[in-house]
Design brief:
Elements lengths: L3 E4 L8 H8 L2 H17 L8 E3 L8 E8 L2 E10 L3 E4 L2 E3 L7 H20 L1
Parallel strand pairs: 1-5
Antiparallel strand pairs: 2-3, 3-4, 4-5, 4-6
Length: about 120
């Protein structure tokens, strides 16, 4: 089964994950797009080392695509929405062992905003 991937768009039209992907060095960007393709192909069956859930009940349903190329490490958050769609809100270049809480909070905020706006339609 093929899954759909959608880039989260803010109400002002900005697309944070697209901006992040465009900012990556070419080889890391290519590897990140390969990981996104794996998500499309395998959906919820994709496991570590490619993906990992974010811990904490307040973060339920938020995952990260884990991308490593040479010494560069990046993460792209995602969550599922109705059926076979995965939404990618944003990503970041990882510089520490732990995922920064501000990045998790940002993913949670985007997920809540997306769900709110979709339920309003």
């Amino acid at each position: 089964m093929a899954y759909d991937v959608e880039f989260y768009q803010e109400e002002n039209g900005e697309v944070p994950v697209r901006d992040f992907l465009e900012s990556l060095p070419p080889k890391l960007r290519a590897k990140t797009f390969r990981e996104i393709e794996l998500l499309k192909d395998h959906g919820p069956d994709l496991r570590e080392p490619h993906t990992k859930s974010i811990k904490g009940k307040e973060n339920k349903g938020i995952y990260e695509l884990r991308v490593k190329f040479s010494t560069d490490i990046s993460r792209v958050f995602y969550f599922s929405y109705i059926g076979s769609t995965f939404v990618l809100p944003h990503g970041f270049v990882k510089k520490t062992n732990k995922t920064p809480p501000r990045e998790i909070e940002r993913a949670r905020k985007y997920k809540e905003d997306y769900e709110r706006r979709c339920s309003d339609e």
